[in-house]
Amino acid sequence: MALKFGTFMAPFHCPVGQDPTYAIERDLAVIRHMDMLGFDEAWIGEHHSCGHELIPDPFIFIAYAAQETRHIKLGTGVVSLPYHNPLWVADRALFTDRLLRGRFMLGLGPGALATDATMIGIPLEELRGAFEEDVEVLMAILRGEKVTHRTPRYNLVDAQTQFAPYSDFDVAVAAIASPTGPRVAAKNGLSLLSVGATAPEGGFDALALHWDVMQERAPQFGHTPDRSGWRLCGPMHLAETKEQAIEDARHGLDAWCDYTQKVLAAPHFRAAGTTFEERVAWVNETGLGVIGTPDEAIAQVERLEKQSGGFGSYLLIHHEWARHEATLKSYELFANHVKPRFQGSSGRLQKASDYAVSRWEELDKRHGDAIQAATDRHAKERADAGQA
Q1: Using CA atoms, how far apart are residues 151 and 31, in angstroms rounded to an integer?
Q2: What pTM did the predictor assign?
Q3: Which residues fall in a coiled-coil region (predicted)?
């Protein structure tokens, strides 16, 4: 199957202290750029603390970005469901789906930032259990059922939405290190979004775990897992040479790594190394991602295909390792040289070119002879007319 490509945009703005207005404008510019380049989808995160991931409400961002794009699908990547009343999440999702008229996707997760959960009094130990419970409630509401359900975080009494879906939008569940994501996706017949697909600790090994859980658990609830809905995420920065890509990454790789090591309380997503050189090696040599060329990006996606057994979409984890202009160039290189390799969009173009090359000598001579013959006829007609 032809792979789809997009971005998973937390987004990361490192180091802290940047102007948030300009930071958000860069995020919008990336989405507009990807839409123009033919990327398939973009997933936008929800975060409320730590000062680096600056979009608190993906629904608002998506509704705004939809007006500035034409084709790319936009999804919540992800809504931290235990932070919210499932009825309001369902209502916002159905409303956004109607606003986007078929370009909306709903991504769900338990919440990635420990500081977010602690600010609203949810114990970290309870997040994943709450998430499993809330997804079932949310999906019942989305199906149009009337739901009565009480938890310590909300009380629903005959709850239902007034909107019906505009489209059969995709609902995906985030999976990082634990089996919670695939358990929830399998039970509810949802897609899987493996955010930690390439994380050195448990990343490639976790791919097998994630899909094993899907295959084992989904039939128990009457569902068949579909690999075409499985999305894998990983970071890349591309340039025309590996040396240029590494030089580009001097702008922001260290700040991003510092964030994962010293600010973000997430042991499953933590950079290694203390020097720039060590961190580049950590990205390139552990399988986490690519700081290099389109050819190396192709090899990474092929390796993921082999390791996973097949998936439907690869999402570039958005970052600002490089300056904005170089980041846009990286997406352009990916679109021009990596995407076509897996989507088959350039195969016929190459065949057409090869065919033209194979007939060039013959057709070039015939075309030249035809032009000369027409010129000779015209000259003869003029000469004959002059004699007359």
Answers
A1: 37
A2: 0.93
A3: none
